[in-house]
Amino acid sequence: MLKYSDLISGLKQGKLLPVYLFFGQEEFLVQEAVDLIIAKVVEPGGGDFNFNTVYCRDTPASEIVNLCQTLPFMSAKRLVIAKDIDALRSGDLDELLPYLNDPSPSTCLVLISHQERYEKKPVVSAVDAQGAVTRFYSLLDREVPPWIEGKAKGLGLTIERDAALYLLQTIGNDLQKLLNELEKIAIYSKGKRTITYEDTKAVAGDFREYSSFDLAAAVGGKSREKAFQMLTKLLQEGEAPVGLLGSIAWNFRRLLQAKSRQQSGISLDEAIKGLRPPVIFHQTAQFKAQLNSYSLDELRRVFDVMLDTDRALKSSGLPGKLILERMILELCGT
Asked: Domain 4-135 is in which class?
């Protein structure tokens, strides 16, 4: 198994293998890797002579093999991309396997599955032996800010860590939305080499009065009326109750981590610095105020309340707004 970062590094260095298997649900990263391969294989002005994209639901394995065994026309390589490989029946896989075990050196074959896992072990083993197998998973929260910084660098800019963290807070880890927002901020910041927290807030903050993280901070700070106001607004804007609960839980997990570290003898500032992703500098005072509102035992009890809320949202049939309002009443009275 080849890690995503190693795959991208190798492609940028011009290392092209005869066969790849990409699987996982992070379609944006899959497409980035595919675009890099296309740039390496398909020569400008070469047209479609040496490039085929097929969908395995409609294409038998024999046709995929024939395409792969066709010599490139006036080019060193040809590229075949086979999408939805999960749709291939066992008989088709039997036809494809001999090629995977002995792929053409003049063809690059990319097999793509958007399933979280790809379980066909003979295919995985063959591709792993002759090329590379890479899983594309959604980035963890702590991985998103460095990803944003890398994209900013690609635009010829640097971005402050607080600015990247603010994008994560307001948009989440949808990479396509993050890139779109970053490009908007780059236009807004035209003439500047560094994107600041203020730049990001001015642009990304415009599309929504409140974010789910604002709600989480209001609940964490026991600001009941403010939390009710934000909850109503966010639900009107289409936020899912379960998603809002997730943001609140994320904030309380960080409070619990920091409080536990503090209880072990670490200073408050050091306890907060150890969180990943880190607390936005501009929100540190707010986070400290939340932390000082709870004892360690109170924070632990919060998770019992949120567990009951999660069950109610998924099985009680009651309106999500009512369930979350009850939770806010209970948490803000802790």
From this structure: alpha beta
Domain boundaries, the chain: 4-135, 141-207, 212-331
Residue type, 211: S
- Pick the range with the lowest mean pLDDT from 15-19, 110-114, 250-254, 262-266: 262-266
Distance, in Å, from the CA atom of 137 to the CA atom of 104, rounded to the nearest integer, reads 29
Single out the residue of 194, 220, 237, 214 nearest to residue 288, CA to CA: 220
**The domain 212-331: what is its CATH number?**
1.20.272.10
Per DSSP, helices labelled H in the chain are: 4-12, 27-41, 61-69, 90-101, 121-130, 144-154, 161-171, 175-188, 197-204, 212-220, 224-236, 241-263, 268-273, 284-291, 296-315, 320-331
Task: Please check the confidence at residue 206 and state whether its pLDDT lies above 60.
Answer: no
How many whole angstroms separate alpha carbon 287 and alpha carbon 144?
21
Q: Output the 3-class SS for 184-204.
A: HHHHHCCCCCEECHHHHHHHH
Distance CA 44, CA 294 (A): 62
Tens-place pLDDT, residues 277-317? 888 777 888 888 888 888 889 899 999 999 999 999 999 88
Architecture of the domain spanning 141-207? Orthogonal Bundle (1.10)
pLDDT band at 46 (very low <50, low <70, confident <90, very high): low
The tokens 């040496």 sit on which residue? Answer: 50
Query: Per the confidence metrics, is the pTM higher than 0.70?
Result: no
